[in-house]
Amino acid sequence: xxxxxxxxxxxxxxxxxxxxxxxxxxxxxxxxxxxxxxxxxxxxxxxxxxxxxxxxxxxxxxxxxxxxxxxxxxxxxxxxxxxxxxxxxxxxxxxxxxxxxxxxxxxxxxxxxxxxxxxxxxxxxxxxxxxxxxxxxxxxxxxxxxxxxxxxxxxxxxxxxxxxxxxxxxxxxxxxxxxxxxxxxxxxxxxxxxxxxxxxxxxxxxxxxxxxxxxxxxxxxxxxxxxxxxxxxxxxxxxxxxxxxxxxxxxxxxxxxxxxxxxxxxxxxxxxxxxxxxxxxxxxxxxxxxxxxxxxxxxxxxxxxxxxxxxxxxxx
Length: 316
Description:
The protein has 8 helices and no strands. By secondary structure, it is mostly helical. The longest helix has 33 residues, at 280-312.
């Protein structure tokens, strides 16, 4: 019997089946199976097609918005912005898992061909290239697990930074609601609680669409992916993935620094000393805080996976 059916979720194997690293199935195959019985392979493929197509359309609209945004810097600033890096990683993950799920569902016999079939036909080679590997080494497992982790940590972190830091600091791209100062004037009977000026939903459609998708809907999609669309287990080793999250955040800071040299623009406003009260120390502290927050977001991701595993365990 195959390691996993092409129409059912991944379930624990029989006792005679042995799995590497204490797992019943390779992580690449787990990315192609939902843990929920109601989501069979064809439905999963349909959902992944919708999500990948939607993210692709958002990428086009968001790129138009960012290119047309009033800024003192040219369009080359865009690749160095954290929102761009986070979104691209998420988009790549969804395109990859869409291809893998499609090949695993509709071309299961070509997923793991015999060694003798190598080079037999162009179709076989193409199918093998686009199919999820059924046998992965420890390095391959850890590499994909790290990619899965970083792509989702960055997506959640992007949303957190935007609504918790950028918007309150006035760098969210729209005017936030301002609360009026009351001077204890007993004759003031106004019922207006706030005066938002030109708020998010009063901006043009492209801008509102881009902001909501890049910094909000993308996090919702990440939540749906983690809880409903894959069977990837909790990261192991945990310390290694925490370290990986820290390193990935540090690498982004290096990338942002390169962007500063190339475009004179920081990918996150709090990395710019000029926007931090001309204080280099404040910018450095903010950068350190950015790195430190990534393990916190990883903890949230780890908790989501643990919650899903606990709930779906009753299906076994």
